[in-house]
Amino acid sequence: MTQVYTHAAFTIAAKRAPDAHTGFLHPRSLPSGTTVVEVRDEAGETRQCILTFQVPERDEDQNFLDTRGWTLQEYILSRRLLIIGSLTTVWSCRKEREGNCDGWSLDRKRGDPFRFEATWIWSDKTVFKNTHRLDAIAFFGTHPEYDHPRPDDRSIRLEWKYLVELYTRRNLTRPTDRILAISGLAQIFSRIRGGKYAAGLWVNDLPQALLWETSSGASCPRPSNQGPSWSWTAINRAVTCDFGNGRNVSSVDSIEYELDQPGAPFGSVKCGTLRVNGPALDLEWKCSRSTSHRKNPGGHHLKYLTADGGYINANIKFCPDAEESDSDWATVTLLAIKTHELTAGLVLRKKNDTDCSRLGFFNARLRENNPNSYCQLPMVKEWGSRTFTIV
Questions:
Q1: What is the CA radius of gyration of the chain?
Q2: How far apart are the C-alpha atoms of 327 and 356, rounded to whole Å?
Q3: 137-146, 349-358, 361-370 — which one is most confidently predicted on average?
């Protein structure tokens, strides 16, 4: 499918159709809160003007295609798009992404992957002047032989981060397609940046690429067959990715994974193992959903055993990856990945005698980050380094 969309002359996106059985060329209806007024122009001719009492972007943003996972890469890989929406018809191409719109002029922010300002800052020195970074990446990913200046690796990393965050907010009929419905984009990105790709993460970006966290309020149970726990493809929630400033304090010693289809390097993964070495601290954790409240969503409790034998509240931000059943106190481990103004990392739990799995993400304002912090956990330099096998 990647080849189909990248080589198509143009793609028609029938956004106003709610399903494959409904047409999209019938007359449009006015959005709610509008009225038609006749006005006379300077030449004396009578024209119709439509007044609205509420901005109609919301109606356009509820188009079905903007909520589906598979359509994101189809949208981005297409060189030219004729987008037929509920209120507008838009022409969008790599040369010009804005302004070619009939009917309503909408300042839309949701659904459209080109919604944010991301002009390639060095494009003045190339034939891609004022081109969106996504378009430059898609071009060079499709035509790697062209000898022109191209986006730097940091820009490409940022675009991947934004795409993952946008993509994971969309829906899939089959949750197991989570890794598959973005594989075409991964293939394009790989041609311009190189490096191995494993279960939605770029190996060159490790360990920082492990710092994704769930961003949606509703928890879902953790699937059993969607990939390794360290990958965002293993859960069915929206995520945000941390590619900010900071110093890596952990290292990935090795990564091993087995593809479902050996000939599909950007496809699903049967299993995967990371060996990570870094500062680690053991805590006690339990889940009691009956105690869930605004400051403690999900009813998760974390405490630390001090040197004098007493327990203190961990006072860290903990984002579990999935819904957890009620449990008694058990030992979990904080593995620090990066430290800056906050220390961020993974919360691990033992799976068996040799392996751990990811339970969630944490960040903490430790005393080394801020001497006035209310978090009384030891500083990262006091944690002690350990090696973990994460599956």
A1: 25
A2: 18
A3: 349-358
User: 64 to each of 29, 110, 170, 208, 217, how far by Cα in Å?
Assistant: 17, 12, 10, 34, 22
For 76-163, list the strands marked E by DSSP.
80-84, 89-93
Rounded to the nearest 5°, which phi and psi values hold at 61?
-75, -10
H helix or E strand, kind and range, residue 134: helix 133-142
Backbone angles phi, psi at 298, to 5 degrees: 85, -10
CB contact at 8 A, 197 and 203: yes
Measure the CA–CA gap between 267 and 285, rounded to whole angstroms: 35
Residue 350: the pLDDT is 96
Pick the residue with more confidence: 194 or 320? 320
Long-range contacts of 342-345 (CB under 8 A, 24+ apart): 342/369, 343/368, 343/369, 343/380, 344/211, 344/242, 344/246, 345/211, 345/250, 345/278
pTM: 0.85
Give the start-to-end residue ranges of the domains of the chain.
1-194, 274-390
**In the chain, beta strands by DSSP E:** 11-14, 34-40, 46-52, 80-84, 89-93, 197-198, 201-202, 212-214, 239-241, 247-248, 251-259, 269-287, 300-305, 311-313, 317-320, 330-339, 343-350, 356-364, 385-390
State the Cα–Cα distance between residues 128 and 54, nearest whole angstrom: 37
Beta carbons within 8 Å of 256's beta carbon, 6+ residues apart: 272, 273
Task: Count Cβ atoms within 10 A of the Cβ of residue 378 and give its class: 0-12 exposed, 13-18 middle, 19 or more buried.
Answer: middle
- pLDDT tens for residues 197-214? 999 999 999 999 999 999
Question: How confident is the model at residue 105, as a pLDDT?
Answer: 59
Q: Which residue has the tokens 């494009």?
A: 123
Pairing of strands 197-198, 46-52: unpaired
Point out which residues pair with 300 in neighbouring strands: 287
Cα separation, 194 vs 187, in Å, equals 10
Amino acid at 208: Q
Q: What angle do CA 153, 159, 165 make, to 5 degrees?
A: 140
